[in-house]
Specification:
With about 120 residues, this protein is mainly beta. Helices cover about 5% and strands about 50% of the residues. The chain starts with a strand and ends with a strand.
Length: about 120
């Protein structure tokens, strides 16, 4: 059974850091493109970052570039998102998602999502 389980969210002050993890199981993790997507209250999903199968080509939304780092450990079937210098506008539910085809990967389309982990940036 395909599973994506996010963890590492929480409440942090502006300027703080969090590291999100996404544990994958039930599929061949190393052959799938992976993404982080977030959804703020009352808004639609926003792509945050994605990474290719071998992990050497990360891509970022302009809103997080320079502050967030996406990475993956294919030996551990785990995706990560290191988030530094967090801002209140980073608040939201963070999902990891998988994509099977290169075409859908470059178009930021997803085949399966996890349940999400909440990130709240506030004083």
């Amino acid at each position: 059974q395909l599973r994506l389980v996010e963890s590492g969210g929480g409440l942090v002050q502006p300027g703080g850091s969090l590291r999100l993890s996404c544990a994958a199981s039930g599929f061949s993790f190393s052959t799938h493109y992976m993404s982080w997507v977030r959804q703020a209250p009352g808004k639609g999903p926003e792509w945050v970052a994605n990474i290719n199968t071998v992990g050497n080509m990360p891509r970022y939304a302009d809103s997080v570039r320079g502050r967030f780092t996406i990475s993956r450990d294919n030996a551990k079937n785990t995706l990560y998102l290191q988030m530094n210098n967090l801002k209140p506008e980073d608040t939201g539910l963070y999902y990891c998602a998988l994509t099977r085809s290169y075409k859908d990967y470059v178009e930021n389309k997803y085949d399966f999502w996890g349940q999400g982990t909440q990130v709240t940036v506030s004083t």
